[in-house]
Amino acid sequence: MSTRTPGAVLWDMDGTIVDTEPIWLAAQQGLMQRHDLPPLTPEHDELLVGASMEMSADLFISLGVPMSKREIIDSIQFEVADRIREGVEWRPGARELLRDLSANRVPTALVTNSGLGIVQAVLEILDDHTFDVIVSADDVEHGKPHPEPFLTAAKQLGVDTRDTVAIEDSINGLGSAVAANCVVLAVPHAVAIAPRHDLIVHPTLQGVGWAELSQLFADHLDRRFPLEGADRKPSA
């Protein structure tokens, strides 16, 4: 049985820490309406959840929005940041887990496809919690589902991704974290997530503290690497 604990926790932001998904969807639908285009379908919404801003802009251009990629990104992000400052709800259990990680001095990173303006708007409501590292869309060349955001965060923290837990809620985010070789805790929100051998799927963060997260991490290693068990060496 593995007795290892995570070396760091890498947090997604939108839909994982705070419930910004309705704000994003409203801003995206508003963009279509302003250009007299048909509303986004549920299939479009699913593609957009957790997608990089570049991927989102490409989709809007393909749907007929007569703006440049940069103009689309700026328009949506400015509106989302303004709406967040008007108020946004925490996702269940996120605030408590953040506090418990801080109390146990666990290194944390915020890893998001949102731009720095949106990150700053969210940080204003996160009480006194600070992250050791923040990786936003402005800090990487390739956003999620590319692994670069999580690889960048782990490098800045000085840990191997295999020794981290990444907490995500979207298909794009999960793809990024899995590709980066993180141990991935999937907490479904706007999009259903089916059980997979390479994920820990948990319905909520409510009741999950540092001890529970460490146990989920250890149990996952035992399932993924049953022959190595407690002898599995930490990554170099």
UniProtKB/TrEMBL annotation:
InterPro entries linked: HAD-like_sf (IPR036412), HAD-SF_hydro_IA (IPR006439), HAD_2 (IPR041492), HAD_sf (IPR023214), PGP-like_dom2 (IPR023198)
Classification via PANTHER family: 2-DEOXYGLUCOSE-6-PHOSPHATE PHOSPHATASE 2, PSEUDOURIDINE-5'-PHOSPHATASE
Protein name: HAD family phosphatase
Superkingdom: Bacteria
CDD domains membership: HAD_BPGM-like
Source species of the chain: Gulosibacter macacae
